Amino acid sequence: MGGRGGLGLAMLTRASSWCGLGPIHDVMKKPSPTRRSPDVVPVCATRRETGASQFPIVGVGASAGGLEALEEFLGHVPEGSGWAFIIVQHLDPTRRGMLPELLRRSTVMKVVQVKDRTRVQPDRVYVIPPNKDLSFRRGVLHLLEPTAPRGQRLPIDFLFRSLARDLHAQSIGVILSGMGSDGTLGARAIKEQAGLIVVQEPGTARFDSMPRSVVSAGLADGVAPVKEIPARILSHLKHLPVVSQVSAEPPEALVRNAFDQLIVLLRARTGQDFSHYKRNTLHRRMERRMGIHALRRPAAYLCYLKENPQEVDLLFKELLIGVTRFFRDTEAWEQLATQVLPGMLAGRVPGRSLRAWVPGCSTGEEAYSLAIAFREATEARGAPGEVALQIFATDLDPDAIEKARQGLFAESLAADVSAARLARFFTREERGYRVQKSIREMVIFAPQNLVMDPPFTKLDLLCCRNLLIYLTPEVQAKLIPLFHYSLAPGGILFLGIAETIGKFTGLFTSLAGKS
């Protein structure tokens, strides 16, 4: 979605290639642009390594009260299932791990404690050792030394994120009894890839904080007593679509009529038009919901949608799952903080407040990241109250906007925000961390349809990251000139990793920098 740099920085006249640049694209609006016709922007696609597995791999997270839940879970896995399980439980780093020995009582599968570079095999249970982080890559488990201090480690998130990166739509995560919110960020990563998340019914857990956190975030595909979770996974696997990898076009079997009907149902129920979404995005989300409900044909799922309006709401929420977290793409935010924002402050018109817009803000992480970075930049100049930044943050989902306004985030926030920033800009509460009032007051959140509603104007910074990639080339071609119109001369457009300005090189100039 976007990023841009500050005045007074060295700039490139144009990038020789937009594909495959670093983790961010910073582009500056040219003061005297040449208007161009809204040509269709070609999709800049890069081939992703696929982590497709020949057998199901299930990540399982547990903490306090998790031993009983793990034993019950493994005891109900069908014998000879051919699945592999990777178990992460919060363990005392100073004591020898006994979990493998304890779990062997509950299953006929081989249970082992992970050693570095262990290759995952079917009908095995792999258990994390104490005082380690565990990552999955190309069928191999890797052990890493934890970087976070004890008490702030989130090993479940760490594993789930690696499963999502490698297995994509085949990733499966299970959250059992535990305190805190470890697993919530990892569950979001899996959901972003259209994977499956099943959670222990909080009322049946000895400690319900972990499963309740995932459920409250709207990330659970299934909520069930532990003994029923293996059956939920089995049902999902039985109806998993054959085509699980991303393709340029949906399979021919998923005919245009099914898409048209789906868009009509979504528009009638939510008032939002998804015809500007890439069909492949709709296809993957529809396919995933079909698998959850054990439906093989698009026509059957459309009938289910018509008979169950609440399923339309769930599909709507799933289409809007935010690919977001605080200070996502660290190098990009570092450049923004050290080069772009100081340049904006130095080049501002005296007496004028700065204006920024964050479209597609989801639950507010990126808008608050910008507010924090700006506050730090003004403090570094020795004049924290000298200039104000007004941030407008908008999203299609009114529920996401309401959550963003509250500014309350799970404890797993500590994985993305430094201890110094947590202490400086957040207040610890029973349910997590709340953004301090002085930062919340810098942001105005509001529902908005980016394609249909009027834009904000006279902006110094437009931060639109990881939204364009979900939209059709035709819509992208309309939005880039719209963003140019919204920005003041010299204003900055801040884009995400896989996003470009396409053919509109006459409207923006790339900023120099490693990002």
Mean pLDDT: 82
What is the oligomeric state here? single chain
Q: Give me the Rg, rounded.
A: 23 Å
- Strand composition percent: 15-25%
Termini separation comes to 15 Å
What class would the helix/strand composition place it in?
Answer: alpha/beta
Largest pleated sheet: 7 strands, mixed
How many helices? The count is 16
- Give me the side-by-side strand order of the main sheet: 17-13-12-18-19-1-20
User: Can you give the helix content as a percent range?
Assistant: 25-40%
Low-confidence stretches: 1-25, 32-51, 242-251
How many DSSP E strands?
20
What does the overall shape look like? globular
What does this structure look like?
By secondary structure, this protein is an alpha/beta fold. The protein has helices at 66-75, 99-103, 155-167, 184-192, 209-216, 229-238, 256-270, 279-292, 298-307, 309-319, 330-347, 365-380, 398-406, 419-425, 437-440, 473-486, and strands at residues 25-29, 57-62, 84-89, 110-113, 118-119, 124-127, 133-137, 140-144, 172-175, 196-200, 222-224, 354-359, 389-395, 408-409, 426-429, 432-435, 443-447, 459-463, 487-495, 508-510.
Can you describe this structure in just a few lines?
With 515 residues, the chain is of the alpha/beta class. Helices cover 34% and strands 18% of the residues. Helix 3 runs parallel beside helix 4, helix 7 runs parallel beside helix 9 (298-307) and helix 9 (298-307) packs across helix 10 (309-319).
